[in-house]
User: Fold this.
Amino acid sequence: PVYVVESVHDGKFPLEQSYCHVNHSVVISTIKRAENNEGWVVRAVEAGGKKGSANIDFTWLKLSKDFQFGPFEIKTIYISDKDKSIRETNLLEI
Assistant:
């Protein structure tokens, strides 16, 4: 993941915040606005080389969903602003 070092300044968000919680050996590599600007895109990678089920809790949206991962599989997940639906999509976000 890429990060930006920022100095402390006034703002409405806490200094630290968790955006996702994941069980299993899945790593969230990206959280960004969708290209259509009508939702969120989350990219998740199974990093342990193990097939299995992972629950991803999108804590900042108060949503969660179970996903099946293969070893080292990358998933692109789309979360709609409109109806809060969560679905797998491809890397092009379609």
User: Anything to note?
Assistant: The chain is about 0% helix and 45% strand. The chain has a mean pLDDT of 89. The beta strands are 21-22, 26-33, 39-46, 52-58, 63-69, 74-80, 86-89.
